[in-house]
Design brief:
By secondary structure, the chain is an alpha+beta fold. It has one domain: Aminopeptidase (3-Layer(aba) Sandwich), CATH 3.40.630. Helices cover 35% and strands 27% of the residues. The chain contains six helices and seven strands. Helix 4 links the parallel strand 4 and strand 5. Helix 2 crosses helix 3. It is globular. The two termini are 27 Å apart. The chain binds coenzyme A. Coenzyme A binds next to strand 4, helix 4 and helix 5.
């Protein structure tokens, strides 16, 4: 389904005031989804640390070692800044800085606010991650999702190839013993773009 929302690359001039809302959507997903693959935290939440963590991610985005994408309503007037409550989702790609891997990226965060799910926002965020990564010369993206989660289904439906599953990979915060498994994915994004171009040309 075509998303009623639009993706935007984080831009400090237009989006710096959204940082507390980015931390809030992250906190809400940690509390409600109890997702174990969205950053280093588990409930109960250290909200001050979460804000500091986000400021560090913004610094990485500014240093061009990370891409942050926001999901927002389509913009009306270009000079109008989005309101905090407009924020519908976030995705991030960490750009590998090693000489051997500087063509790779890791989608290490994908969240759509509960009210906006199943409207194509997750797919739009993943596609924006691919587009912006390709613009920075990245041809291979990887992702790690919780096994049997909506995010696993979302990556699969966007053409990500499963490499395998690791059981009991992350603590959940429920108790010391309970852990959840992860599923590992990859996608060669430039290859797929070239293949679809070749098919279109045929
Ligand atoms: C994963 C998540 C981002 C998906 O966002 P979304 O906006 O609902 O996703 P979309 O509407 O774009 O769905 C894309 C595809 O994913 C699959 N999908 C997503 N959620 C699904 C669900 N609950 N059940 C079944 N399929 C689902 C479908 O194939 C869907 O395509 P379709 O609607 O054409 O059938 C969202 O559920 C979320 O934020 N979850 C909590 C946070 C999390 O676990 N993040 C991942 C860790 S990095």
């Amino acid at each position: 389904m075509a998303s009623p929302s639009q993706t935007y690359v984080f831009h400090p001039e237009h989006h710096a005031h959204l940082i507390p809302y980015m931390a809030a959507i992250h906190a809400s997903s940690l509390m409600i989804d109890r997702a174990t693959t969205i950053g280093p935290f588990l409930p109960p939440l250290p909200s001050d640390r979460l804000l500091v963590w986000w400021k560090d991610r913004i610094a990485e985005h500014q240093a061009q070692t990370r891409i942050i994408i926001l999901l927002l309503p389509p913009s009306g007037k270009s000079d109008q800044k989005p309101k905090g409550e407009d924020l519908r989702g976030i995705a991030m790609v960490e750009l590998d800085q090693s000489q051997a891997g500087n063509f790779r990226g890791v989608i290490d965060l994908l969240i759509v606010g509960q009210k906006f799910r199943r409207q194509g926002g997750g797919r739009s965020l993943i596609q924006a991650c691919e587009y912006e990564s390709a613009k920075k010369g990245r041809s291979l993206l990887t992702a790690k999702t919780e096994t049997d989660s909506a995010s696993e289904l979302a990556f699969r439906s966007c053409g990500y190839i499963e490499v395998g599953k690791i059981p009991n990979f992350s603590r959940t915060g429920v108790d010391a013993a309970t852990k959840r498994g992860v599923t590992l994915f990859y996608k060669e994004i430039l290859l797929q773009t070239q293949q679809s171009r070749t098919t279109a040309d045929a």
